[in-house]
Write the structure tokens for this entry.
Amino acid sequence: MSIPLPEGYLGKEYKEKIENGRVSEEEEKVLKAIAGIAAETGLGDVIIQGMLKAGSVMLILVEGDPGRLIGKNGRNIRRIEKESGVKIRIVKKTGFVEGVADLIYPARILSISRVFLPDGEKRKIIISKEDMKRLPLKKEEIEEAVKTLYGKEIEITVE
């Protein structure tokens, strides 16, 4: 499969995955929509490292400043969603805490605790009861996405 994205906008591993045809049809649609934006306005220094389906949302994992990808007032995001038919969310490839904060935004993290268990450990993410309804994905979808992206077990709880 060939995606007409200009050189430099795809991470090495993700580029290989695309070249080997190991991306979903939804990923392909999203990448083609992103390619259109890249051709028109460029994407700045953003590098797409991969995508992950979480429930009904496609998470796009990026390095660098995603501002050009998002667009003014989210214009490019809405365009990508319209052209691809896929709901998307940008997640910056950063440290664990920042990544989780991106995933749950607009909900806010009150605290993170490390819980040691006989068979390993997990992180307990505490958010307010009011923020529980502000989660952009189901609690279980966020927990699974964090496990896939960061290799860490988490449990989202309410205070």
The chain has two domains: 12-92, 96-158. DSSP finds seven helices and six strands in the chain.
